[in-house]
Records
---
Amino acid sequence: MSDPTADATALAERVQDGELRLYELDDYADAETAAAARREFIECETGASLDSVGEYTFAAESAEPNIENMIGGAQLPMGVAGPVTVDGGAAADEYYLPLATTEGALVASVNRGLGTIEAAGGATARVTDSGMTRAPVFRVAGVAEAETVVEWVADNRERLREAAESTTSHGELLDVDPYVVGDNVFLRFVYDTKDAMGMNMATIATRETAEVIEAETPAEMVALSGNLCSDKKPAAINAVEGRGRTVTADVVLPRDLVNERLDTTPEAMAEGNTRKNLVGSAKAASLGFNAHAANTVAAAFLATGQDAAQVVEGANAITTMDAREEGLYASVSLAALELGTVGGGTGLATQGEALEILGLGGGGDPPGANADAFAEVIATGALAGELSLVAAFCSRHLASAHEELGR
């Protein structure tokens, strides 16, 4: 039972003496005291000074769903880019985009791109698909049993839906896609998780359906995630089928705007994009055909409390540019943007404030609208970053820009 009056120094000494382990401190003190005791112990063990780590704005107990063995907070510089007008399926406003990063020139680059897009009247963006996935792998005796399992799943979708949705008041099972490899059956469950990123929701719901499948078929589950989901690693299935939000943003920039704002031409931009982002990426066998879309995704994720590891899928994007008579058409399509406006780290203090900047914190009306709008704004930010960087290459200003900003 925790003791709010427990002394951090005394607790740190008990850890040093081997009486307690770091993770046990929460049983003997409130969250703030336990964190202070861990800092004292780590400072003694390593010689590090953790004064800055100990300065954080959120209540330690509020972070308990997000962290274990807490010692404090990690702070990143946060900037803002914009405003930019987004004409989206869910986003329909002027937005400022908060970005947390340690990469100098990134916010300036995105801001230049957003300014150019805004001067053209804003961007258009649409979420074209949505679904969080979880794909357990089952063991069967061979392909004949695999066929039996696949047929049973096809005939019992409604039963699986009832089992999955019994675990959540928000999520909906959309589909179950089977894949057979020898004596392995993978079932890729797809869920509508509304405004939550929803990976935990999908995991819990899938566990419930897996129990039904094991009871009714010869299949035996080996792992609740069989890596065909696929989460936090480069995967072609996410590039093709999508995961989270699949979203595209595009814009047409008039010729004079490309000349004045980006110091280049539509033809040079289109050629640069083809040779670098398309041909170069193909030669590298990259899953991302873009300049640096992950830069904007990562900075937006860090600012707003998203799962930072899922920037891997955020890099799964294709940038296109086409010189037209009226100017430059440019787009970026992100196949697997996994994000939410509720749950996870979105409830932490600075992350919640960053979502307030966007006006997209919490659940949307209808459910899922805020997360859709958020995806459309991030896609617009990524498009801005692509325009700015490709222009910098085409005008040969990339190195000079970094030199000017002292990076």
Note: The two ends are 51 Å apart (CA to CA).
---
Amino acid sequence: MRRMLGMVAALALVGAAPAAAADDPLDLVLALEEVFVQVAAEATPWVVTLEVHGVKEISSPFDHGRSMPFGGTGSGFVVDAEGTIYTNFHVVGEADRIEAVFADGRRFKADFIAGDLASDVAVIRMLEPPDDLRFAPIGDSDKVRVGQFAIAIGAPLGFESSVTIGHVSAKGRNSIGNHGPGGIAPGFETLEYQNFLQVDTPINPGNSGGPLVDIHGRVIGINTAIAAGGGGGLGFSIPINMARRIAADLVANGKVTRGWLGVGLDDINPSEAEAFDLDQKWGARVTNVWDGTPAKDAKFEVEDVIIAFNGQEIRGPDELKNAVADAPIGKKVPVQVVRDNGGKDVRTVELSVVLVEKPSDKELQARARENERTEVRAGASDYLSSKVGLQLDSRRGGKGVVVRGVTAGSLAEDADLRPGDRLVEVNNSEVTNPADVAEALQASTRSFVPLLILRGGKERPMSLERPRG
């Protein structure tokens, strides 16, 4: 305890006037405690516990056609004098009846306005809000700093008006539904748009939809997911700037309108960067450009590495997906890509693209099926992918054909071929494109096909079992 008090005093005295040196360390701790007490007192009146009830269809084969009533609790917070409340879609999305319960015990019925499954944001509104309604001050999540205090308020495990304190651990977290040993935050794997604030603030079931606030009592996020582990848990909150943009669309249009580029994307990994002689170690790599899309009109190319979009640095596909979703539709948006120019040189290219509204899931699925048919017509690529388990690329400079991907359990994986390898010879014949590889494999009459690859700048002899049929 004495050591902690000393640390608090030392931190408080950095840059302080000399007179502050006489301050009692305990007084400094008590002053900080008072800040937390005031935040809790001022925020609690605009935080609500949401009690939800509804009926779910039972999908079990033994109970087909039956339904079962359900109930649960979550959290939310009031954002305006009309009684509008922000929360999570997974809290209220299936509810037939919603009640907002305040800390003083008053209850008010609420209507579901709209929700967005892709981001887990929802908006509800009280039918008859009270005259003395208080609502939340909204902060700026873009200015949140890792290490700052983060305070959660809600109804964890049904215990309403609970306040917990921690810190912002990280920003820009994504893929939380399948990250880590055994997967974390189960149930959130399908969230398309993730840009979470990660916190060590204790958050439990029932906190969902409640506010994450800073030390000034301003909302900086919506508490959404948790990940429990042996050493404790992590919390994930939707940044309030992102949530407000989505909520505004939901209130105005009943849905979220997002921009669409029309490309397939993948990460840049170190082995690919080395294989393709790239200095660029981060960005979103374009794996496909669909016909009749903004990307095609803007002359994007396969293997372009997108490093900036609409003035925002792009370090991977998830950041690009969020940036495209937030960008204006129908207006020119600047884009920076790294392009290899057919292996002759690597340069940064400035493009501009005019986004359109993202098509429906049904239309996207139809486009994907058409894209698959186009790949099948390519012949060699289809043969290599289905018979051998290889995806190849010959656009980059240097001899041979680069291994772009290896299918798990395939002949290529059995041969220990890896992404980033260059196939130089197949069946003792030089290869320069995927068609050469397919032809050499099909022409071989041996049980094992000899290969010569380049890995890490060194040639290595290998062999591949000849595909049958």
Note: The longest strand covers residues 67-78.
---
Amino acid sequence: MTRHETDFELAAPPVVFPGDAAPESAYRVAHDLLARRAPVEALALLEPALAEDPRNTGLRSLRAWAFLIRAQLGRAEEELASLVADNPSDVWARHALGRALERQSRHAEALPHLRLAAVMSGDPEHSAAAARVAAQVAESQL
């Protein structure tokens, strides 16, 4: 196995503080828990906050991050696809969607998201991910 298959790392989504005090508190604590690799505990905080504010992008991003950490790739993909549909310029969600698809060995589907995130962000890690998946797609076509 390669490193990316066994040790999934993804930078945290950008900090976005919702206006309501309860979701804001859930956001801050869940972000800290996810940074400490505690997705179960973070999800326990996020779900009630999302019940109050189901369209909150910051909370939904954290939920997707928790799903990725837990390797619940189908759930992560669903949440991330919704985030990208709502805001196509969300670089973090687009890159994370590409990574979720990559982790499911759906390289051809992942590649457009990873390439676009790389172009939008200029981040060398995003560019490396796009190049890695492009090589996998090319190899599968041989």
Note: The first helix runs from residue 3 to 6.
---
Amino acid sequence: MLRVRTAARSGLASCAAAFVVSSLVACTSPPPNAPSYDIVPVDAAWGEAGPPMGAPWSESPAPTVQGAAVARGFFLRRYATVVSPRSMSLAPNGDVFVTSPARSTPGGEGGGSGAVLVLSDDDRDGVAETHTFADGLADVHAVAVRNGYVYFTTENTLFRTPYAMGMRREATGMRERVFSYPDNVDARWTHGLDVRADGTVMTSRGVWGTSRECGPRPENGEIYRVGGMGSSRIVQGLRNPLYIRCHRTDPLCIAAELGDDRGPTWGALEKLVALEESTQDVGFPCCITQSRGTPYNGGNVFDCSAVTAGVATFTLQLTPFGLDWEPGIWPGPFNRGLFVALHGSYYSSPKWEGASVVFAATDAAGKPTGSFMPFLLGFGPGGTPLERPADVLFSHDGRLFVADDHAGAVYWIAPDDLRRR
């Protein structure tokens, strides 16, 4: 549990206690004079990778961030200015690929450069150099770098383009279409995307639907597996699976599913869904989760008993976006934990209540166990140092990158004693 050092931080205690797997509640941000806080006892032993032995990252000239609240024992720095950063992926050499859509996205962001950008740090000073890898992409949303390609999504198409170590600009004439998203007048243009360790591509399509449409089930959100033998739908019955992350070494992929915005009075949920090999049905628009129908599923129009349950659920409008696993470098309890960017509520007053980065311990398969706990707080509208986290990404060297699409920035977080590798 959260242990608060000063009275000024007392509001954090109830917030941390509320972050549980089955039901997260929105929490207020800590005061500006609380840059760090205790969360749980930290095991000083490093992960299996051992302690890094280079110069301390704490000596980096990267700008500090005043007023943000990160778990004690960690510090936060500003890495880059990017208008509306939405999705990130790590290249083998440590470069961070990030999308900057120009088109308005769910949640009200947009107005970016319409490009896939590369954030490099060749001089290892903790401050990014920004390069335009591919542009002219107003509707770009997700990006994934894997197995010699950069993959990215637009409204109708999943593309890939060859990638070699250290590339900062797409090779002319080499881009190819990998997958075309099925037509649907209710479809969203913002897709999720990642690539498994075996090279299988996972990508999603969401819809604008509502649970009031339960009956003869309309087209709904889906996830597709794309590989050398073609494509297939592996998950249906979703509303808006906006982000997908695949484990770097294990076959597990998880999608973040956003619930029905109109359903807070009857218990609609948001969830993390593990993507399995067999075809799954998550039950939207008739089911809240396994064995729980919506009020519009009267008379059991659709059987909810067999739908896929999430590996974690969140209170509606906490809005889980990007997620990633700690790679085994940080000390416990964070070691190999699953971190999730909660984009917060668009409908709350003040805006974005619940926006934060949270984490949970995982089992051997990488699925979350126990409680989600707050890790990075201090998000909010109008002058706060942080605003709305959209994605999280761990680097090979142990830093956690956080994209804040409303603030137009990418940050990194590291343990106080983390050294350059």
Note: The longest strand covers residues 230-238.
